[in-house]
Amino acid sequence: xxxxxxxxxxxxxxxxxxxxxxxxxxxxxxxxxxxxxxxxxxxxxxxxxxxxxxxxxxxxxxxxxxxxxxxxxxxxxxxxxxxxxxxxxxxxxxxxxxxxxxxxxxxxxxxxxxxxxxxxxxxxxxxxxxxxxxxxxxxxxxxxxxxxxxxxxxxxxxxxxxxxxxxxxxxxxxxxxxxxxxxxxxxxxxxxxxxxxxxxxxxxxxxxxxxxxxxxxxxxxxxxxxxxxxxxxxxxxxxxxxxxxxxxxxxxxxxxxxxxxxxxxxxxxxxxxxxxxxxxxxxxxxxxxxxx
Length: 292
Fold this sequence. Notes:
Elements: E1 2-6, E2 11-16, E3 25-29, H1 40-48, E4 52-56, H2 72-86, E5 92-97, H3 99-110, E6 115-121, H4 126-133, H5 137-142, H6 144-148, H7 152-158, H8 161-174, H9 182-195, H10 198-201, H11 217-223, E7 232-237, E8 259-264, H12 271-274, H13 276-287
Parallel strand pairs: 3-4, 3-5, 5-6, 6-7, 7-8
Antiparallel strand pairs: 1-2, 2-4
Helix pairs in contact: 1-13, 2-3
């Protein structure tokens, strides 16, 4: 694992695998509350199969600086620049988890020619999630943290309290069968200490909040009204305590290209850590249909 800085995209990243210029590039996007190190078990398996794997610290997660406006379109501009720098002439493979999945849908909708195939984890297509979630009292309860983050001074004070006990609580609730290792949590805590309150701002759509990634949600939903052309695999943990598997219902209509979805048993929200062999095998099998 090495580090990489892409000044034109204003991003830092971790990398695995070959540096051969002809190697296929896989870009892995983390979500909240997470860091790119969570991709390592999957990244190593992709690297073994010849991929050059790049997992950026998402905008606002130190050492990547905060975005200037902070909306999803700006964030996707940065990641499209990252893809251009990594692979100027060939499409890349894209994998996104949680908020990284949200950004992946935007990327594939905006620039389908830049992506050979995609895989998203733990957050269904946004139009399906919004449609299903608004009709689900259970999902509205699971999404309580999004509302809490709107209480800006309170949330900013509570999240770091007690050695980031709030973040530990989310991981335990969202992946009830998984125990976050202390060395991993130490890296996560260090990233949040250097980044706060920026990671919370992703969930704050009101104007005037720096980094409010959801501020342009209506425009993004309009963009995603057109079905995604990029071949896409979707994976969801059966025991996910953040987003219920029923939120997947009807998302197939949001994809015009090849699309597969699967619910993995014995996995929660952070399924790339809980079931890395199964997740990697499914991604590799799907991507192999679309050689670069």
